[in-house]
């Protein structure tokens, strides 16, 4: 049987999180607003108005270009992309064509090992073909035989980023979007929420016989608005193409639409070509002159990127990759971790365990922001020190997390005010142990008959009576002694 491989390239549109639109002062993010409430003569393309470029758009695009290892051009131009569509009131979109802000670039994707033993983790380098600034168009909605148009999105600032045909599986395509979303949030330049159209993706798919280097005709899948949908749509399309080719048919360059409800692809149209757009320079805007000074100012304080930080966490703190990946999933979380490690001074893996299991659960369940928690990294560090020093046991420590978060008091203060310190007074524990044994004659009999594993149950009863404060090791040895 012939073995095929997929060839996939992604075109993404990223909404930058500026306050205002790209060429006017209308509010940019009108996701939750009534239709046609954030519009003005400029973004609606009325005659006699002129666009004024929003500086913040350029600055955020430069940050992204830098993170993508894209060459930032000293001079770039705006161009008109001409087409007619009801939600494009000017009859053209202001975009960048041949001289765009960024040139080239790449993103390295760590692809995790598959579950099967013969697949190893690897890095997929995805090249960037295009990185440019443009304005968004409006939104059209069909309802029965009527058509509604919302201009709110007209003039919303976007960066369009196009990858080379470097991805090989539906999973790799999903990984690209996961890492891109992480990066955009890390840089603070986009909410990158696919459900809110802050991040949109069209997927280009073709197949070829494995080992070949030709590029075969491709299809383009539109209208996929979640990462899972992108993965499913691509996998479905790869299967279809393999079946077509096996049946002796040719793949035609269609544009397809993903229907999330039925999990199937529909043909939208045959693809138009670039020449149809009649690009020409935008006469109403000056080129962007990116001086070295301006660029240096924008990139001052450019952060360590998530994948670099992930590698450093493995190296510097000896964390497993799994931990490092979760802890660097979000920038504020990784900052939190590092601060706690610094304050604690002990084993960094221990901080990771507490953070990943207990603190992260609190954060997720209660929708907390790691950088604004009352359970600060310092508080977590001192709590861990109380456990290490034997002042409190682990279960008291865990219940303290929420108390600190609720009250904002230090762990030390709560422990001393509420008398949570561990009881390691022999006679106090002995009294409770005796109580437990008297109350459980059946278990005592079983124990004596040889079921020695019951010791754990007895210790549990003692801990319960002492509300978790007893020194468990001490309780165990007293119980064993009494049971002899
Ligand atoms: P088009 O002219 O159809 O828009 P481009 O050459 O501009 O095509 O590429 C658009 C996207 O399609 C890019 O992401 C690119 O990587 C991808 N692409 C190009 N050729 C192929 C192919 N043969 N198979 C899969 N993807 C492809
Ligand atoms: Zn406007
Ligand atoms: Mg193209």
Notes on the structure:
This protein is of the alpha+beta class. The protein folds into three domains: 4-297, no CATH class; 306-418, no CATH class; 426-483, Arc Repressor Mutant, subunit A (Orthogonal Bundle). Helices cover 39% and strands 20% of the residues. The chain has 15 helices and 17 strands. It has helices at residues 55-67, 170-187, 227-246, 292-299, 306-317, 321-327, 331-344, 348-366, 377-388, 394-407, 411-417, 426-439, 441-448, 455-465, 472-483, and strands at 4-15, 71-72, 75-76, 79-82, 92-95, 102-103, 106-111, 122-135, 139-143, 146-150, 157-163, 199-209, 219-224, 254-259, 264-270, 280-281, 288-289. The chain has an eight-stranded mixed beta sheet. Strands 5-4-16 form a three-stranded antiparallel beta sheet, with no helix packed on it. α5 crosses α6 (321-327). The longest helix is centred in the middle third of the chain and has 20 residues, at 227-246. It is elongated, with a radius of gyration of 30 Å. The termini are far apart. The mean pLDDT is 93. Residues 7-11, 162-165, 204-206, 215-216, 218, 274 line the site of adenosine-5'-diphosphate (ADP).
Strand pairing plus helix content: what structural class? alpha+beta
The count of domains is: 3
Report the count of strand segments.
17
The ligands bound in this entry are:
adenosine-5'-diphosphate, zinc ion, magnesium ion
Low-pLDDT residue spans: none
Task: Please tell me the overall pLDDT.
Answer: 93
Largest sheet: 8 strands, mixed
Question: What is the overall number of helices?
Answer: 15
Helical amount: 25-40%
Beta-strand content estimate: 15-25%
Distance between the termini: 71 Å
Judging from the principal axes of the Cα atoms, what is the shape?
elongated
What does the radius of gyration come to?
30 Å
Lateral strand order in the biggest sheet: 7-8-11-1-12-13-14-15
């Amino acid at each position: 049987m012939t073995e095929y491989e997929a060839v996939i390239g992604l075109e993404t549109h990223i909404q930058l999180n500026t306050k205002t639109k790209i060429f006017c002062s209308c509010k940019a993010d009108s996701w939750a607003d009534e239709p046609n409430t954030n519009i003005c003569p400029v973004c609606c393309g009325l005659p006699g108005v002129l666009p004024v470029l929003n500086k913040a758009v350029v600055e955020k695009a430069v940050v992204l270009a830098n993170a993508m290892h894209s060459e930032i051009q000293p001079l770039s131009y705006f161009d008109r992309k001409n087409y007619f569509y009801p939600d494009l009131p000017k009859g053209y979109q202001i975009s960048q064509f041949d001289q765009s802000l960024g040139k080239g670039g790449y993103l390295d994707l760590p692809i995790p090992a598959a579950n099967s033993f013969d697949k190893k983790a690897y890095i997929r380098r995805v090249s960037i073909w295009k990185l440019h600034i443009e304005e968004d168009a409006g939104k059209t909605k069909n309802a029965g035989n009527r058509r509604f148009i919302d201009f709110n999105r007209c003039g919303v600032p976007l960066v369009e980023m196009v990858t080379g045909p470097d991805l090989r599986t539906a999973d790799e395509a999903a990984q690209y979007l996961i890492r891109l979303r992480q990066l955009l949030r890390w840089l603070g330049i986009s909410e990158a929420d696919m459900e809110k159209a802050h991040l949109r993706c069209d997927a280009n798919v073709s197949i070829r016989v494995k080992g070949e280097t030709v590029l075969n005709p491709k299809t383009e899948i539109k209208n996929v608005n979640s990462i899972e949908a992108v993965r499913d749509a691509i996998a479905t399309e790869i299967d279809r193409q393999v079946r077509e080719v096996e049946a002796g048919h040719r793949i035609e360059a269609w544009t397809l639409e993903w229907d999330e409800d039925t999990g199937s692809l529909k043909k939208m149209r045959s693809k138009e070509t670039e020449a149809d757009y009649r690009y020409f320079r935008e006469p109403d805007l000056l080129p962007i002159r990116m001086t070295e000074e301006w660029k240096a100012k924008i990139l001052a304080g450019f952060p360590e990127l998530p994948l670099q930080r992930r590698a450093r966490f493995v190296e510097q703190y000896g964390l497993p990759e799994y931990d490092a990946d979760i802890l660097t999933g979000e920038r504020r979380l990784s900052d939190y971790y590092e601060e706690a490690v610094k304050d604690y001074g002990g084993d960094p893996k221990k901080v990771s365990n507490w953070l990943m299991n207990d603190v992260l659960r609190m954060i997720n369940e209660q929708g907390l922001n790691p950088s604004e928690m009352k359970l600060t990294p310092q508080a977590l560090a001192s709590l861990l020190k109380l456990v290490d020093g034997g002042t409190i046991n682990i279960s008291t420590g865990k219940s303290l997390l929420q108390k600190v978060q609720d009250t904002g008091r230090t762990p030390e203060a709560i422990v001393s005010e509420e008398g949570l310190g561990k009881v390691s007074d022999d006679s106090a524990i002995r009294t409770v142990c005796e109580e437990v044994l008297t109350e459980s004659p059946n278990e005592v009999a079983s124990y004596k008959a040889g079921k020695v594993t019951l010791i754990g149950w007895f210790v549990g009863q003692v801990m319960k009576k002492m509300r978790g404060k007893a020194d468990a090791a001490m309780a165990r040895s007293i119980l064993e002694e009494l049971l002899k």
